[in-house]
Automatic annotation (TrEMBL):
Family annotation (Pfam families): SIR2
Organism superkingdom: Bacteria
Gene Ontology molecular functions: histone deacetylase activity, NAD-dependent; metal ion binding; NAD+ binding
Listed name of the protein: protein acetyllysine N-acetyltransferase
PROSITE patterns: SIRTUIN
Domain Deacetylase sirtuin-type span(s) in chain numbering: 1-252
Length: 252
């Protein structure tokens, strides 16, 4: 059996930034005078239930106002042309709305709720969740329902399949990293160890004074594109299409 090249795309906030989704990292990191840590922290969220749900209700409402950008559409298009796996840290559904399927959302999904009492997960779409009224449809819990989004200090069960997918990349495969500096998932360190072809697209290189181990560095990649994601669609498509079509001669 000939090896079928595998294209894996790992994306972060920079992918959706061009659609107008706020990231809340950097700058002052505040939301309505709450620290982001207060509304996204697994250890304290039940004390701050009301603000947590108000924050995520606002995020869900904001999502209804934005559209996929050309890079979301390119990634969805790759799935029709290549054996492609899309892994994202983004909790929005812009890849799906661009036509992508089976996206591995390692930090959860904004439109889903999860009940910590019984483990149920369900989709509420763009709607607000009223934490004083609404309940888990399976067990009736009211206070233990949280957005199905991975908070600070919360385990991320999808890191395991993510690591397996990335770890299986061989020298004929391709890794595309878009819109993440590697501060949360250390994709720079991961990429460095992989034998595949690798391309990075970020707005700009990580400033030396902000660098911590795990982050992305140009030398970990064969190609780097430092521009907004939506502005490098043609160039990135050309690089990836060339790599996916190239015959390495291995196996002869
Ligand atoms: Zn429940």
């Amino acid at each position: 059996m000939p090896h079928q090249r595998h294209l894996v795309v790992f994306s972060g906030a920079g992918l959706s930034a061009d659609s107008g989704i706020a990231t809340f990292r950097g700058a002052d990191g505040l939301w309505e005078n709450h620290s982001i840590d207060e509304v996204c922290n697994y250890d304290t969220w039940e004390r701050n239930r009301e603000s947590v749900h108000r924050f995520y209700n606002a995020r869900r409402a904001a999502l209804a106002e934005v559209q996929p950008n050309p890079m979301h559409r390119l990634l969805a298009n790759w799935q029709t042309r290549f054996r492609t796996t899309l892994i994202t840290q983004n909790i929005d559904d812009l890849l799906e709305r661009a036509g992508a399927r089976d996206v591995l959302h390692v930090h959860g999904v904004l439109s889903e709720m999860r009940c910590l009492a019984c483990g149920s997960v369900w989709d509420i779409g763009p709607k607000a969740w009223d934490p004083s009224e609404e309940r888990c449809p399976t067990c009736g819990s009211r206070d233990r329902v949280k957005p199905n989004v991975v908070f600070f200090n919360e385990p991320a069960p999808l890191y395991k399949p993510m690591s397996e997918i990335l770890g299986a990349l061989g020298r004929d495969d391709v890794l595309v990293v878009i819109g993440t500096d590697g501060a949360v998932v250390p994709i720079g360190q991961i990429a460095e160890r992989l034998p595949c072809r690798k391309v990075l697209n970020n707005l700009e290189p990580v400033a030396p004074e902000n660098f911590v181990p795990g982050m992305v560095m140009p030398r970990q990649f064969d190609r780097t594109l430092f521009k907004p994601a939506a502005k490098v669609v043609g160039e990135l498509d050309e690089i990836v299409t060339g790599w996916m079509a190239a015959w390495s001669g291995s196996g002869l």
